[in-house]
Amino acid sequence: MADEFFEQILLSEAGRLIYSSVVLRELQLKLNREIYEEKTRLIEREPKIIRVDILSKDKLDARKLESYYNFEISYYDLIHLSITKRLNAALVTRDELLLRTAREQGVIAEKPENITTY
To answer: Which of 52, 64, 67, 75 is 20 to 30 Å from 41 by CA-CA measure?
Structure first.
């Protein structure tokens, strides 16, 4: 399913994927070294996949949201939400709690299988 999502975005004229160092760290923890390095090379070579920096404002906003939601949502998920909000982008996740939270915060949020293109 993830492969289909990436293919759909990368083949679309306007499609772009934005990621942060947090995403790379999550991949590093979940994948074996060889696969992680292969995926990282692919990500870095693809011009439609764009790495964004985590700004101090993103961290501060994530901490405020973390407190607002009584620490029930991962700080790193809230970092993603803060970045998405700052860039006026759509958030793509399968995490139901993050989907609801993003929508409450006025962010377009969808599961990858529900994305057409933005």
So the answer is: 75
Length of the chain: 118
**Cβ proximity of 85 and 105 under 8 Å:** yes
pLDDT by residue (tens digit) across 4-43? Answer: 776 776 777 777 888 898 888 888 999 999 999 998 988 8
**pLDDT surpasses 50 at 105:** yes
What is the pTM (predicted TM-score) of this model?
0.81
Q: Any residues with CB less than 8 A from the CB of 7 and at least 6 apart, and which?
A: none
Residue ranges and CATH numbers for the domains of the chain are 2-7+14-114 (3.40.50.1010)
